[in-house]
Specification:
Three copies of one chain form a homotrimer. The first copy, chain A, is of the alpha/beta class and about 260 residues long. Chain A has eleven helices and eight strands. Helix content of chain A is about 45%, strand content about 15%. In chain A, strands 2-1-3-4-5-6-7-8 form an eight-stranded mixed β-sheet, with helices on both faces. The first copy, chain A, is globular and about 40 Å long. At the A-B interface, helix 2, strand 2, helix 3 and helix 10 of A face helix 5 and helix 10 of B.
Amino acid sequence: MVVRTSSSPSTPAEALEAVRRAAPLTQCITNAVVTNFTANALLALGAAPAMCDIPGEAGMFAGIAGGVLVNLGTPTAEQRDAAREAVVAGTPWVLDPVAVGALPVRTALAHELLASRPAVIRGNASEILALAGTGAGGRGVDATDSPDDARDAAVALAGRTGATVAVSGEIDLIVDADREARIVGGSALLTQVTGGGCALGAAMAAFAAVTAPFEAAVAASTVWAAASERAALSSRGPGSFAVAFLDELAALRPDDLEARAGGDR
Amino acid sequence: MVVRTSSSPSTPAEALEAVRRAAPLTQCITNAVVTNFTANALLALGAAPAMCDIPGEAGMFAGIAGGVLVNLGTPTAEQRDAAREAVVAGTPWVLDPVAVGALPVRTALAHELLASRPAVIRGNASEILALAGTGAGGRGVDATDSPDDARDAAVALAGRTGATVAVSGEIDLIVDADREARIVGGSALLTQVTGGGCALGAAMAAFAAVTAPFEAAVAASTVWAAASERAALSSRGPGSFAVAFLDELAALRPDDLEARAGGDR
Amino acid sequence: MVVRTSSSPSTPAEALEAVRRAAPLTQCITNAVVTNFTANALLALGAAPAMCDIPGEAGMFAGIAGGVLVNLGTPTAEQRDAAREAVVAGTPWVLDPVAVGALPVRTALAHELLASRPAVIRGNASEILALAGTGAGGRGVDATDSPDDARDAAVALAGRTGATVAVSGEIDLIVDADREARIVGGSALLTQVTGGGCALGAAMAAFAAVTAPFEAAVAASTVWAAASERAALSSRGPGSFAVAFLDELAALRPDDLEARAGGDR
């Protein structure tokens, strides 16, 4: 159930306003480590999270959801089947290929799912390099390559799959077949908390319910940068940062995003 | 192992005192999103949580637990079998039929489990309507109907199953075969954090270890209302609210509940 | 991939410095309740957590990890197979036998895994008594026996398995075949939050990547004591304590551990 209209939001501010208005049902098939933080981040953003991830329900649910996230962090057999159901429902979906390349089960699944054309692929540089076939993959959730190292791979992957590809890092790089954006800013504390990147993928799925994939990825990255910068100001460490990040996400107004240099080529 | 005595606590204050004294072992077969928050909420309440949810252990464990929660949020095949074992152990148990109606696997399971006579059924209005057979079910954890819309369905469900039925919403409605209570107050922030309602179901299971089902549901709802109101006073948003809610739950004294208008008919 | 060198760190301060320097990849096969807290605690400590716990990947991943945790809190069938793969990879691993003794599936698995010689076994007194064959086991995560009650059992278990055995309690007792240490201090609030002990097991796995098992267990317990004492000073209850604990873990400097009486024989 995509609530996107012909006058699709084009700026992060417009996209945030649209998410707050539509509260899009956002289905997450995601890893056990980050489900709670992801659901709370989606609620704070203004979306309606639902972690429906069992076979026999996931496909049906994807049909009524506005956006779907498939995150391969801890892909049990049931989640793998749930993902296979969900990605063919016709709803825009985001692939987060956690630790792809290094590990065979998820790597095979990621390549299989690519055939169902994700709207957005979001990963760190190592994961994007591995998925594009030009790297060995990371050792887990932490990238050992930088976003710009993955630029050519991201462009190639976008060209081959039709997806928007978002490479997370100190500067987020977002590309599709003919556009390219860099999102600067954001706090490094976001990398010292588990789930910062995974929840960003979920936010892209929420935004993909109300705007086009490239704009959705740019909006989510811009919101993450803004909320994390603000949260860092009132944090004493990673524990209080995670709490403050949810507070700031909920407090963020579309106006707060206007001033940011968003998505220039 | 029900520690309830012949002079069973009848007020929320007495029930809270009894939970603090008995620290009832409370088994939760619950969804992946809220396990951590649920366990921490039970600890803060004074209960002893145990998330024992695999076949071959869940039934045996239910035999020594004081109360059992079966929450259908992310019902894997193993959890479904664990639930089937646990509900026949003779221990009072709470059914939380998350998203029942909309999704076939959990809907079938919920109807199957009803035969084992839950002490309490807790859900939002959409879920209670769906379980009673008079509604289409919600689109997930957020109700699209209000508690009073579900009053007749709750009464019918209580009559048919012998359970106390608790309908969560702005005002919580709690009914059994011949009584009815409304719990007012509480903070809306509780709905902006994942697991507020799921943990409430777990609290009802803890209270069901020390008092009768209707009194258990009223006590848990009253405690949730009191702690959430206090937490809201020191919160800046949903992130800090969830943290403060646990603090306030632990700080709450039975006396704090005396003043509240609890469970009038 | 053990980064331990011939001049292995011998004090908690040296071990903390070594973890910060090496950021050892620490694989956790752990229960659903504590995955998030565990990953955040490892990040705050300076390690690189990875919750790789599915068959077909867990063994391979253990081969590149520096330390592995096997926690039996909610052992699904897939996790049991993943654990079997991981413990034969040759990487030092920690066994946390949650609720062993009381529950048959995990008890059988714990005894089976012992054959693969854990570097460290960490549990509460009831669990250690049960694993050593001299107790009935706890009723879950809360011990009903005190660490000194389990001293003889711990010594026997260490002798039989070659492992360092860490018994958590008000005073942590750590023994191996010929040494014995007691770690005093720490805040009782750590027992009012779910995952304090489980994350301690994960920390022992991280430290086991950079030093010997006995020293790893002592270092982790010492760090937990120091960070929890500091966190208690700025906490209003268990909710804010869990947040502050992560902040203090990240802020802790090796120097802060020098003054503590760590690991006397």
